[in-house]
Write a structure and sequence with these properties.
Length: 336
């Protein structure tokens, strides 16, 4: 009789526990399945499952603190929730919230900025400073003096402030990224674009990486229509091959720090190593940040005999290309 009574008591006890668990489980559904608005909740360092549950219940992200604790034990993660900031919503179940906290899926504030193709370093600095991303002097110091371990920078004169190597793209970085981290991410992106194939192709052309990027920067600033990039490249390659001056307006605009539509005779007579109207060959450094198309075109020019090009009168950025000065003059006459 005594054994029967004990057995009956055990059954009743288990039934009570099971019933409590079932009651608590109903509190683990979302507070409001329709409310997806996120709010930030910070798990303090050293917080316990109990304290976290109470805090979440107080701000109405969960229905019941005891159910929260019971669920954590059922999931065998009691005491494993990580400190940090989390974005949570009332549409999340208790299990979803616990999983997020245990995985340490913390909220990281991010910032985004875009550098257009053809931007010069001065423009990049202006844009980043205006957006509050950098301290100008710190950034310029990083460009000139901080060492970065990338093969393409071998032999690059750092006094040119990495002109041409801050790859133009849209970047998403953790808020508060340092000047070093910003520059490094842009160089890392360049490294992703400039593949082993490109290094080999540069060797085939008997060009250094710096020469390729310098030429690509001129192409970037001269070409406007996608299909014309390799053709513009061919003009400059052809001129270099015969020792003819590039006569690129973009190089003079780099000197002027102004994108003038029409250059004067005084402009093209400026005494500067960047003036390709009075100096043969490439400029001492890139004149802007070339995009991938310009870089590829510098390495793989179209097969042409063109030596000249002039903007068409159509104002769509396209050009007339010609092999002779006589033909070029005719093109220039009809384009105006």
């Amino acid at each position: 009789m005594k054994k029967l009574a004990l057995l009956l008591l055990l059954v009743l006890t288990l039934s009570h526990v099971s019933g409590c668990a079932g009651v608590l489980e109903k509190y683990n559904s979302p507070v409001d399945p329709e409310d997806t608005a996120t709010v930030m909740y910070t798990v303090p360092s050293g917080a316990t499952t109990t304290s976290i549950g109470k805090a979440l219940a107080e701000i109405e992200l969960i229905q019941n603190a005891n159910a929260f604790k019971a669920k954590a034990k059922q999931m065998e993660v009691d005491g494993q929730m990580k400190a940090g900031d989390y974005m949570l919503s009332k549409s999340m179940s208790t299990e979803e919230i616990i999983t997020k906290l245990v995985n340490g899926d913390i909220y990281v504030e991010i910032e985004t900025f875009t550098i257009p193709e053809g931007y010069e370093v001065r423009q990049i600095v202006d844009k980043l400073e205006a957006g509050g991303f950098i301290d100008r002097e710190k950034f310029l110091d990083v460009l000139q003096n901080t060492e970065f371990d990338y093969a393409f920078l071998e032999g690059v004169d750092r006094s040119y402030l990495l002109e041409g190597y801050l790859f133009p793209d849209t970047y998403t970085l953790k808020a508060g990224a340092t000047e070093v981290q910003i520059v490094d991410r842009m160089l890392e992106r360049f490294d992703e674009i400039f593949t082993d194939e490109y290094y080999e192709r540069a060797k085939e052309l008997d060009m250094t990486v710096d020469q390729v990027i310098t030429l690509a920067s001129v192409i970037e600033r001269e070409a406007r229509v996608e299909e014309e990039f390799p053709i513009v490249s061919s003009v400059f390659h052809n001129r270099i091959d015969i020792g003819m001056m590039l006569q690129s307006c973009a190089t003079v605009q780099f000197i002027l720090k102004e994108r003038k539509d029409v250059l004067s005779f005084d402009d093209i007579a400026i005494d500067s190593p960047y003036n390709t109207y009075i100096n043969a060959g490439l400029t001492p450094s890139p004149i802007a940040s070339p995009g991938e198309l310009a870089i590829h075109s510098a390495l793989y020019p179209a097969d042409t005999n063109y030596l000249y090009f002039v903007t068409k009168e159509t104002n769509d950025g396209s050009h007339y290309f010609n092999e002779t000065l006589e033909g070029h003059n005719r093109d220039a006459a009809r384009s105006h």
